[in-house]
Amino acid sequence: MANFQSNSGNDSANTIAALGLRWAALRGMLGSPLINSEDQKPLRDELLQELQSVGQAMSEIAARNGVELCAKIDVVSEELRKISGDEDDPAQNLLASIRKDVLALTPRAVAERSSVQLVRGMSPHRGAEASTPTETTRAAEAAKSS
User: Fold this and answer.
1) Distance of alpha carbon 85 from its chain centroid, rounded?
2) Cβ(20)–Cβ(58) under 8 Å?
3) How far apart, in Å, are the Cα atoms of 84 and each of 45, 74, 78, 100?
4) Three-state SS string across the chain, please?
5) What is the reported pLDDT for 48?
6) Where are the domains positioned within the chain?
7) pLDDT at residue 117 in the model
8) Could you read off the pLDDT of 54-97 as tens digits, one per residue?
9) Is the pLDDT of residue 98 over 50?
10) How confident is the model over 111-127, as a mean pLDDT?
11) Nearest Cα to 20, choosing from 64, 65, 66, 70?
12) Cα–Cα distance between 58 and 75 in angstroms, integer?
């Protein structure tokens, strides 16, 4: 059987990001066709119980930014989808809209703003010109120290 350790006593491991990763891993395991076999029922039950505890732990932690808030919305959305079984549920559409709004209101990190011209290459003729002033400067400094 799986031996999952609850991190409820370890606050450093109980972040939305860490819990979100655990939640995604558990959902992945539960999505496997192998886990649905009758001989794996105890493991499936244990995974479901752990999934509930991860959801509960996430509800007790405040989101620190838009990405963490979206992770919480994703968990709620998945649970609603599981309960209703309807992809076009109005509640699902509302949660998707809220998620988009949160991401739109959250300022993007500087690295995400523009990927254009992050590194500018030097053209060959500029490289030659750039080395000449440096050599001239070194020669001038050498002349001064003499």
Assistant:
1) 26
2) yes
3) 20, 15, 10, 22
4) CCCCCCCCCCCCCCCHHHHHHHHHHHHHHHCCHHHHCHHHHHHHHHHHHHHHHHHHHHHCCCCCCHHHHHHHHHHHHHHHHHHHCCCCCHHHHHHHHHHHHHHHHCCCCHHHHCCCCCCCCCCHHHHHHHHHHHHHHHHHHHHHHC
5) 93
6) 1-61, 65-108
7) 55
8) 999 999 999 999 989 999 999 999 888 888 877 778 888 999 99
9) yes
10) 56
11) 70
12) 9
Residue (of 8, 14, 23, 12) closest to 71 by Cα position: 23
Amino acid occupying residue 79 = E
List of residues 6+ apart from 89 with CB closer than 8 A: 80, 81
Q: Which amino acid does the sequence have at 9? A: G
Residues 76 and 95: beta-carbon distance below 8 Å: yes
Rounded Cα gap, residues 145 and 40, in angstroms: 82
**Which pLDDT tens digit goes with each residue over 22-61?**
999 999 999 999 998 899 999 999 999 999 999 999 999 9
d(CA 44, CA 34): 10
